[in-house]
Amino acid sequence: MYYFVYVLQSKKDGGIYTGYTDDLNRRYREHQWGLVVTTKARRPPELVYFEGYKDKIKAMAREKYLKTGWGRNYLAKIFKD
User: In a 10 Å sphere around its CB, with 0-12 CB exposed, 13-18 middle and 19+ buried, how is residue 35 labelled?
Assistant: First the structure.
């Protein structure tokens, strides 16, 4: 089983949401359909980045890192290029 860390960007306000899941397609549809409370008001989302991991703990740690200042800087560099 794989786990995915993903980043969504709101097409409405440009805001960023970072999360992790074991089913990226299902989770993206949930965000699109407004089933996720934290992104419901910021629809529609666009999947702008994701990474795959075999280990759930590593995926959770990576999600946590991407939510820090250093992680946000890392993502900003990627989006800039």
Answer: exposed
